Amino acid sequence: MSQARIAIIGGTGLTELEGLRLSEEKKYPTPWGEPSAPLLFGQFGRSRIVFLARHGNPHTKPPHQVNYRANLWALREAGVEQVLAVNAVGGISAETGPARLIVPDQLIDYTYGRGHTFFEGDALEHVTHVDLTEPYDREVRRGLVDAALSRGIPVKDGGVYGCTQGPRLETAAEIRRLERDGCDLVGMTGMPEAALAAELQLRYGCLALSVNWAAGKTEGIITMAEIGAAIESGMGDVRSTISAYLEA
Ligand code: HPA
Predict the structure, then answer these.
(1) Closest Cα to atom 7, ligand 1: which residue?
(2) Is the CB of 164 under 6 A from ligand 1?
(3) 211 CB less than 6 Å from ligand 1?
(4) Can you say whether residue 45 is alpha, beta or left, with left for phi > 0 and alpha for psi between -120 and 50 degrees?
(5) pLDDT tens for residues 19-55?
(6) End-to-end alpha-carbon separation of the chain, Å?
(7) Distance 78 CA to ligand 1 centre (A)
(8) Ligand 1: which atom is nearest the Cα of residue 63?
């Protein structure tokens, strides 16, 4: 039985969901192509969930080559109504330093050239302009914040996620620009995922883990070693927050 109403899309550092008791692994071809990986159905704590590794497993798809449309379409086809997206990000404003959790409430899209809508093609019967005033579902956000706090995990409630194209990191001037735009965190995978979820009427929330201070926020350069260390120290909090969320 492959029904699960809640999906977790794991990003960098969460290619596999430790603690998931797998019941079924299923490939889901879609009209938009193949999802990043087979959908993994199983039990996490007391909840039935489906897990999808955004970058594939092993982690081989860079942010600009993730097939976001296929990923979201497959989840919807699988009966999912709610998506918890886990994203590694760089911190820009206060309380977003390495290993911190953030549940953003807003989003600015700086990406380009990605398959970003289901409303395209020659055979459209109508054009829909989906509302994205609040890109993240309020209740999902509240649930994530409460879940972290219930486990004693500090979490920043709200923040603007600036989504850049990648896969390179930003220049210091780009980060200053994002900061002037009001961004609190920067990542490469928040869009078009959030907009596609809205087009499919999926309730979507983001649990972001800061894995570095963004470019120019510290004296040195950003190293993969530093990112790896923050993932190592913060991913336990991500798992714990998700399991508290699912138990609530
Ligand atoms: N910039 C963009 N994306 C990121 C970063 C960053 O500094 N860290 C993790 N994902």
Answers:
(1) 90
(2) yes
(3) yes
(4) left
(5) 888 999 999 999 999 999 999 999 988 889 999 999 9
(6) 23
(7) 30
(8) 3
| Eight-class DSSP state of 201 | T
Count H helices, E strands: the chain?
Answer: 5, 11
**Residue 130: C-alpha distances to residues 84, 134, 136, 137, 234 (Å):** 20, 11, 13, 14, 34
Residue 189: CB atoms within 10 A of its CB come to 29
Ligand 1: residue of 87, 100, 177, 211 to mutate (most ligand atoms within 8 A of CB) is 211
Residue 170 in contact with ligand 1 by CB distance below 6 A:
yes
Which amino acid appears at position 180 of this protein?
R
* Residue 104 scores a pLDDT above 90: yes
Task: Answer whether residue 226 shows pLDDT above 50.
Answer: yes
pLDDT surpasses 60 at 2: no
Q: Is the ipTM of this complex over 0.90?
A: yes
Residues in the chain: 248
Could you list the residues known to form a binding site for phosphate, using ranges. 12, 54-55, 189
Query: Are 63 and 85 contacting, i.e. CB atoms less than 8 angstroms apart?
Result: no
| Token pair of 231 as six digits | 């993932």
Ligand 1: does its nearest atom lie under 6 Å from the Cβ of 90? yes
Least Cα distance to 72 among 189, 211, 239, 159 occurs for 189
- Quote the Cα angle for 49-61-41, to 5°: 15
Give the mean pLDDT of 115-144: 92
Q: Whose CA is nearest to atom 3 of ligand 1?
A: 187
Residue identified by tokens 């192509």 is 33
87 CB within 6 A, ligand 1: no
